[in-house]
Specification:
Blueprint lengths: L19 E2 L4 E2 L5 H4 L12 H15 L4 H26 L1
Antiparallel strand pairs: 1-2
């Protein structure tokens, strides 16, 4: 996802969400995460890696009619999230 540079600093409520890049301190989805939380919740918050993969797959399906290149990038990212989910599941079993 494209890095946001304007008012994109994550806020404490973003904890456990899959969307922020915590190492860089910005949200990959919203330019102003604090504004998303103005009513007490962020409609885009996603704490489940499998849900994140489903969202990306839906975006890839939509994008495929417009840009197969973008669709391929989204599918690649979706696969990465499925891998994260598998690793998390393996960790829970151990």
């Amino acid at each position: 996802m494209a890095k946001r540079t304007t008012d994109s600093k994550i806020v404490p409520q973003c904890a456990n969400c899959c969307l922020p890049d915590f190492s860089e301190g910005y949200c990959t989805a919203f330019q102003d995460p604090a504004y998303q939380w103005r009513n007490g919740e962020c409609w885009g918050k996603c704490e489940d890696p499998l849900e994140m993969a489903r969202r990306l797959e839906a975006m890839a399906n939509y994008a495929s009619s417009k840009s197969e290149f973008m669709a391929a990038k989204l599918r690649h990212e979706a696969e990465s999230w499925r891998q994260v989910a598998r690793l998390a599941a393996d960790k829970e079993v151990s």
